[in-house]
Amino acid sequence: MVNRKELNPEASPGAAFGARLRRLREARGWTQDELAGLVGYSGRHISAIETGRKPPTLRFTRCSDVAFGVVNTADSFEREWRDIRHGSLLEGFPEYVGHEGRAVEIRLYEVGIVPGLLQTPEYASVLAGNAVRRGAITPEQADERVTLVAERQAALVRQTLPVLMVVLDESCIRRSIGDAAAMEAQLTRLVEFAGQPNTMLQIAPFDLGAHRPFDLPITVLTMPDRSLMSYAESSQRGHLERESTAVLPMLTAYHQLQAESPSQAASVTMIEQVRKGTP
């Protein structure tokens, strides 16, 4: 074959993806243009992915799964894509997200930023964009982080809605992320969230002081079988605890935090004051 570029699957996860795509395509006797017609992309696009010059997107992987007949299987391209994407996420977080999407009760405590489940697309984009500017992630990984926020939120819209209890440190609503319009939209989203029938939102004020039981963000999940899981993060990694007996003290501490924090009505009033710029 003329100008055939030899692939090194060990060069990177993207290279491994491209090499596998080429191998399966050739096993079926398809040219790049023929595969392109099946997935709705150009032959040039197929070539760029096979040679690792362009990273695959979620849409591309899903179209490829249909074309190759591997939807929801262990050989799914989407499954491989998610493994690649998770390289920009903290250790432990990808596994946590899978459990989050099945939980019947979710209890969140966050410090500094609004948690992903409550973020507007604009707010999420600003956070991801700043990570790119710091060199922490690539632009492609930033796009996938924003997509993941939307996917996590969509996963909670089910026939039986999960109960979401959220306590935000006051810093989450005081710290400006993006321009004034983006921040106002985010604060408005919080107020709307508090008005939903399956949610509870409280703000833990700065003056809570020593009564605050957590120094870092924490999430406690109640699963359909009533078992408990917790997820916590440091700056370098996340930790998913699956042993209910180990999670119980965290659940107790969370209840204490809720008891010490202002009511939802008082918390919404605080958010409205910040949104309007009043003391």
Q: Calculate the mean pLDDT score and round it.
A: 89
CATH superfamily of the largest domain: Endonuclease Chain A
From the 3D coordinates, which CATH architecture of the largest domain would you assign? 2-Layer Sandwich
- Rg from alpha-carbon coordinates: 22 Å
What's the CATH class label of the largest domain? Alpha Beta
User: Helices and strands: which structural class?
Assistant: alpha/beta
The CATH topology of the largest domain turns out to be Endonuclease, Chain A
- Could you tell me the number of beta strands? 6
**Helix-strand topology string:** HHHHHHEHHEHHEEEEHH
Number of domains: 2
Weakly predicted, low-confidence segments? none
With helices defined by DSSP (H or I, 4 residues minimum), what is the helix count? 12
Shape: elongated
State the helical fraction. Answer: 40-55%
User: What is the straight-line distance between the termini?
Assistant: 71 Å
Please describe the biggest sheet, giving its number of strands, its sense, and whether it closes into a barrel.
6 strands, mixed
Q: What proportion strand?
A: 5-15%
- Give me the side-by-side strand order of the main sheet: 3-2-1-4-5-6
